[in-house]
Amino acid sequence: MTLKTYVAQHGRQFGTLVGLLVLCAVMWILTPHFLTISNLLNIAEQTAIIAIIAAGMTFVILTAGIDLSVGSVLAFSGVVMASLLQKGAPVGVALAVGVLAGFGCGTINGLLISVGRLPPFIATLGMMSVARGGSLLFTEGRPISGFSESFRYLATGRVVGVPMPVLVMLTVFFTAWFVLTKTKLGRYTYAIGGNEEATILSGINVRLYKTLIYGICGGLAGLAAILLTARLNSAQPIAGMMYELDAIAATVIGGTSLMGGEGNVFGTLVGALIIGVLRNGLTLLNISSFAQQIIIGLVIIVAVLLDMTLKKGRR
Amino acid sequence: METEPVLQMRNIRKTFPGVIALDDVSFDLRRGEVHILLGENGAGKSTLMKILSGAYERDGGEVLIDGREVEIGNPRRSQSLGIGIIYQELNLVPHLSAAENIYLGREPSRAGLPFLPFIVDRKAMNGSARELLAGLGVNLDVRRPVGELSIAEQQMVEIAKAVSLDARILIMDEPTAVLTEREIRELFARIRRLKADGVSIIYISHRMEELFEIGDRVTVLRDGSVVGTRDIAGATKPELIRMMVNRELTQQFPKVAAPRGKEVLRVEGLNRAGVLTDISFSLCEGEILGVAGLLGSGRTELARAIFGLDRIDSGGIHIKGRLQRIASPRRAINLGLGFLTEDRKTQGLVLPLSVRENICLPSVDAFSRMGVVSRRREAEAAAKYRKDLRIKTTGLEQRVVNLSGGNQQKVVLSKWLVSRGDILIFDEPTRGIDVGSKAEIYELMNKLTAAGAAIIMISSDLPEVLGMSDRILVMHQGRINGEFSAAEATQEKILHRALGDTE
Known about the structure:
The complex is a heterodimer of chains A (about 325) and B (about 500). With about 325 residues, chain A is mostly helical. Chain A has a single domain (about 15-310), classed as ABC transporter involved in vitamin B12 uptake, BtuC. Helix content of chain A is about 75%, strand content about 5%. Chain A has 13 helices and four strands. The longest helix of chain A is centred in the first third of the chain and has 28 residues, at about 5-30. Chain B folds into three domains: about 5-245, P-loop containing nucleotide triphosphate hydrolases (Rossmann fold, 3-Layer(aba) Sandwich); about 260-335 and about 420-503, P-loop containing nucleotide triphosphate hydrolases (Rossmann fold), CATH 3.40.50; about 345-420, no CATH class. Chain B has helices at about 45-55, 75-80, 100, 120-135, 150-165, 180-195, 210-215, 235-245, 300-305, 330-335, 345-350, 355-360, 375-390, 405-420, 435-450, 460-470, 490-500; strands at about 5-15, 20-30, 35-40, 60-65, 70, 85, 170-175, 200-205, 215-220, 225-230, 265-270, 275-285, 290-295, 315-320, 320-325, 335-340, 370, 370-375, 425, 455-460, 470-475, 480-485. In chain B, the strands form five sheets. In chain B, strands 6-7-8-3-9-10 form a six-stranded mixed sheet, sandwiched between helices. In chain B, strand 17 and strand 18 form a beta hairpin. The termini of chain B are far apart.
């Protein structure tokens, strides 16, 4: 493949990346503090949680689905894990159960969608409410706080200067990239989103794979719950509110089509970073969080508009 | 009839990344003529039409209507210039009535009365829709949802809509592809009526017979260029085919009988409530079994049941001598079955994926180790079939959405060859593809049977069924209503059985 055809085929990724770089340059000009190692690491750290959820969301959206429950599932996983930690369970066990709780919620979503034939929007809207209510009921509405140093190390620790959450994020994205581009699961993810019926006719167990994909999305929300709980030193039943929207935004800004079958996880990482850089930069510029919401909303709209225009031009 | 052209396209050029879709194409349309556009899939007919409809912008050249240069730019502009298009896939809202569809977006209201302009005057709308259809010689209940109408009736609704928009140039993209013989007659009668009213028609079709019946002139496109324009009166079929494909097609159906081997499929007493009744037949190595019948006679349903897509209520399916329960397509594929579906875009292909990924989709398991797919081995397999089947693509990584119909069909075929299917069910294998690709698919069927494969060919194209089958089953209302050997079958006999006669 020549460089030219490569760029033609993957132009969309470069577009998002260029957008991120331009954004960074603008922020750097406006506020020199932006481009310091410590601030950049700070951004990466703050982005990690949304980015990890968005990686799972990318799988789901590639199948032409959606998962509105990830924020609630994060809270549910968080409180389950935190209660185990408080009861003195070994850290490893608590983490595993936390991730499994997320995976379980996601699997239920997947079964409702693939076997129950519910539209993903409805199934996960239901789960969004159920998981949130479950977390509140489980904790009687109170946060669970105070954990061991070894647990908190997951958020505060650094390996050769890189914060743990950033390492986790990079591992997740590398794995997701590998799965999507190199494995059967990845191929089927794209195929299901591109044409579910043709995929069924090709002898692929679409129900199984769809269920698994929603399971993975829930499991990654559980993983994000670990990082959030460790960072806050507290598991809140109201944690992760609206995270689903940030995750969807990151995925869509990253060029994944809501119609399914098109997109990639690298774009999602860049999309999540764009949101992170905007938040960070605007805060450094002393712009109120109210105005920040407006700006982020506009960026989502403009990014997708640009994407659509570019795609149309290529056809 | 020498009159000033209604439409002239001059030196039209359109390129897509890596492809010249149209190169210096000129074409003109006279008042009240039916001008046929002929060409293999991928020759540029659709692109040319999309420029007229405003879906594409041209890169060069000019378009003149009534001698004046126009910019089309978007579909609305095209409409206001008097261009109407009847697409192969009809563009109607199934839940709305015929009248509502015709007047979608410009519903008549009770003007003059205060506060009432927002209320649709249903009576007036239904009345003028009825009138419009009557003008075309069509009589149907304009209040019925179009989803309940036959395809032919839906097509008439589309034509009525175009006429109501004062279309003077009507583009019809393969209008007969989904019609029965009688419906085609009626369509032609209406086309003649439109001609008499001074409407000019651009007619795209692959069916040679039709061109001579309905056309005035024909323009042949090949690889994005005009090969030539002829008066139908002076043109001959071999000449047009030669212009289209640039090679001689010696025989329309190059059937080569293969030696018949062991029985590979036997169906006994298959039932599916309301769909299939007491179906029994067998199929041998090297054999092509044609399945004829009208739309809705249960042909596709039979294929779906054998392929494990639909549950069967009773009956047995024996594959290679063993009774099998086929509960899923996976099982069917593992037993050596392949199913080339009727509609390649909605059932056969994953359009955003590449040629390689589509060809290998049913066989990903075989190319994977511990869940990791070997791209290299996939590419080897895909490259082999790309070469064997002469699939025209810029490469294995090209997305199938950008291929022409014939090449897409070859990709679907390759899927089942890579998965080592040797009992192949072809449902309308040549529908909507050009003569060149057709001949190639027939040749491929010969090659497959020579190599010992068994083929069930479901087709509505009777000459094709007669030309390619060793044996023919005729279905009627979910039953097999007649079986013929190739030697004894005739179009008449098949039609009688398809219509339910038992003699």
